[in-house]
Description:
Layout lengths: L6 E5 L4 H11 L5 E6 L2 H11 L2 E4 L5 H15 L4 E4 L13 H29 L2 E6 L12 H21 L4 E6 L4 E2 L8 H4 L5 E2 H14 L3 E2 L4 H11 L1 H18 L6
Parallel strand pairs: 1-2, 1-4, 2-3, 4-5, 5-6, 6-9, 7-8
Helix pairs in contact: 1-7, 3-4, 4-5, 8-9
Amino acid sequence: MDIENKVVVITGAASGIGRALAQRFHRERPAQLVLADISTESLSDLATELGATAVACDVGSEADIRKLMQTTEDTWGHIDLFCGNAGILRMGGVETDNDTFAQVWDVNVMAHIYAARAALPRMLERGQGYFLITASAAGLLTQLGSLSYSISKHAALSCAEWLQVTHGHQGIKVSALCPQAVETAMTAGTDGSVAGVDGMLSAQQVAEAALEAISEERFLVLPHPQVKKYFQNKANDYGRWIGGMQRLQEQFSELMPKTGD
């Protein structure tokens, strides 16, 4: 897809990868950028800078997603590219409380389902439409230290796969963005040894990789190229891969602050 003269919606656009996507896509001269986020002040500033439309939206709310889609379609006629980028990370394992699991699930998984539910009918009528789903390398591999994030990102990737498999023959395209650690508010205060063994990329680098994949209509977007090899290792010898991840977990545990002393 060529983004020029297209109507593009980006969630989680106020900061991090979403902000970088908005700034990079703006240079491709889309017909309109619609930027959505729950953080409205910084969103408004960015929209003014880019000449975009700002929409307050909690992506964990289906009503908010429907309103975002309806507002865009009523104003611009249709949506060419929907970037489901908003996401949250909460650390913890099985002890994570149910409310936190539900919050992570709503934002990291259900938001993509709500978006597809709202946008697909019009896209299918037109015989074209594109979804960029930020799924994370955690969706291909796992996330040390966060059960809720790992589960939700696996599900987000599965959602992206299903949409492409089910609706690809009807003109629907999907790209799944799967970076490792990125320099955003989510990783603030960490370093590469904790947030990602292969170091952190800037949000701008991730946005560039996403744009390249969309232009090629490529499903899997791997800003950290090492992830492809890790994923292949996982498929080729699952047991060996788990053993390697266990050793990495031991290193991760040593880096975490000790409590209870």
